[in-house]
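Morning!

As promised:
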Amino acid sequence: MSEPAAAPESEAASEPAAASEPAAVRGDDAALTARAADLDARDPLAKVRERFTLDEVTYLDGNSLGALPSGVGPRLLDVIEREWGSLRIRSWDESGWWDAPERIGDRVGALIGAASGQVVVGDSTSVNVFKAVVAAARLAGPERDEILVDEATFPTDGYIATAAARLTGHTVRPVPASAVADAVGPRTAVALVNHVDYRTGRLHDLPGTTAAAHAAGAVVVWDLCHSAGALPVGLDAHGVDLAVGCTYKFLNGGPGAPAYLYVRRDLQPRFDSPLPGWTSHADPFGMAAGYTPADGATRGRVGTPDILSMMALDAALDVWDGVAVEEVRAKSLALTDFFLDCVAALVPAGQVESVTPAAHAERGSQISLRHRDAGAVMAELIRRGVVGDHRRPDILRFGFTPLYTRYADALRAARVLGEVVR
Amino acid sequence: MSEPAAAPESEAASEPAAASEPAAVRGDDAALTARAADLDARDPLAKVRERFTLDEVTYLDGNSLGALPSGVGPRLLDVIEREWGSLRIRSWDESGWWDAPERIGDRVGALIGAASGQVVVGDSTSVNVFKAVVAAARLAGPERDEILVDEATFPTDGYIATAAARLTGHTVRPVPASAVADAVGPRTAVALVNHVDYRTGRLHDLPGTTAAAHAAGAVVVWDLCHSAGALPVGLDAHGVDLAVGCTYKFLNGGPGAPAYLYVRRDLQPRFDSPLPGWTSHADPFGMAAGYTPADGATRGRVGTPDILSMMALDAALDVWDGVAVEEVRAKSLALTDFFLDCVAALVPAGQVESVTPAAHAERGSQISLRHRDAGAVMAELIRRGVVGDHRRPDILRFGFTPLYTRYADALRAARVLGEVVR
């Protein structure tokens, strides 16, 4: 159990001196090294990396599990030892446990363009997809019988939408996310779309798709798992109806950290949850036999909040102090541009192909490269201390978290990838 | 409950207790003090208290939030700093994160009479009630249209059952838990019953009700929130179909710790979840568009498990090492008997009335006392360091956790209650 973190090759092994490398590659590497050093030196977010616990591993999997913000451990120990151990039930009031879903929801909301009072944290993304899809179908009214689902969606969204449709009597129709705007019609109750495709890293058109759905009278649910914390989402600005997302990727909330649900303020009085648990009641401690929903975002709550995971998320969000999502987006694009340049220069031609759009307007905060032997290549990358992940059958996925990823990390990943595939 | 000798009420309610106590009470207190000391000295579980972080407070609210097992803090810090901070995504395999819901589920199962492979931990109790009620309705078949719900249930069960019935087309009929066995009939699909009533502490007849439900062809779902960890449940022995429960009461898992779902082994192949999230898929990392359920208890999972809360629960369960639920039950009954004796001796006659059954076969691990001014009385008890809770309108609730509650605690609570109401 006390195995050390992925043992990277010695620095020497990843230096561009290998005899097998062509001279042109060595020259490119030197130029890219200088460019990385310059970019890192001028990076306005460079100091934010110090708020995380990191080591010599080149960690490019923050789009799966964000790195540890250093404040989480001390905060959780205090939550456990003092708030739980000493104050015990008093902490529901005195330590802000009861209101944590709304309070932390507001902090997440600030990062996705939602004014306060519209986001609650809790449950998993899957459970929130269920709440959102059923509630959206109810908002759309009984005369609409179709739920459109982004066909390349992270599978749980499709599974849950199908399960919801079975219960509500709707039909699920998968369409490409980019075609949702054209596919919505008078039968469409709900469109469930991923903002960024988990596999390809493609960023979909949230404003345009939302507007098209509204023009057709449909309700749109956005899954923000791969965009929240990586780029501006603008939920309020674009009039999004409902949204869900996880907090363990670019929000660094920890493994399986609670997800969240956004319900636009004017829809809240009509938000009719399929999971009306006691903490969403207008008077939860009245413990009445009949259900009366609370006002506001609280209506999206279900059961007793999982305080330890939630307070870890709360502490993790402190890394955002003084950071604007806009500058995160600027660095994300610069990082992924630079990584693509490094790959072009250092990986032998024909070995990998990017499936992530080159256009900034269509790119999230990851680069996905296709390689015929992606599983073995990623295993070897990880063995050499470059951690991305593999998505079957042939995708190498590299996530870029601007809060802690350096240009030097992007360079090193491309360099080691070149060594591995050469 | 035997009444103490009649004593004149003192008007000097704010004077030191000793001065206002009748001589008979002082004599009773001395005898009870000796009896508590003897009982504590002979308690085979006395040493288990050392596994918890406790202080001078008389904590009788473990049926709301269990006290802190001392091993949780160090374990969570290791999960955060090493497993998340250093191993990061490798911990899904190397630190046992991925299988935690089943592995910890088996540990919970051992405490509720479930052989391994039938319990998964995750989500809130409310979400698990939803899974269980919808799946039970599907198991019962389309010709049965009624869901019976224990009318005095903790409200979330009723809210969620009603929400589930709305989606599945069933009708909810509330009946007293003790009448469920007589109420089940050919229309009954599901009976959702609390093993112990949260308000009165009444223990319901799980074997008899289950047998009656089965004789009528219905599927029974038990809510074990107030029995798991306090008394033997015997899920397998009594042929229970489905069960749910929380882990933050007598299982001491921490605030909002993950709940669990039991699905009897032979029902698992037909368990048809309304929340088929990706982690319940037969091949979750295949990320196929179509859903194929996993075998076994895994089918009850939904989204990514909340690892921090889950690992806290895992550490908390270590306090059960070498402890049998049967000896916990024996001490629970002895503690609550003793508390009732102390109340009878030390609380002026007519002030409080127990609403918890005197018969052992009908008593959970709490004593609920009715008092016309329960809210103010409990506030004053808490101010004096005796922590129970108040359930509206007129119930003083005292929970007894045999792993850490001493007979001296029961005596002190009754003594201070006598002082407060005198």
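The two ends of chain B are 19 Å apart (CA to CA).

Hope this helps with the figure draft.
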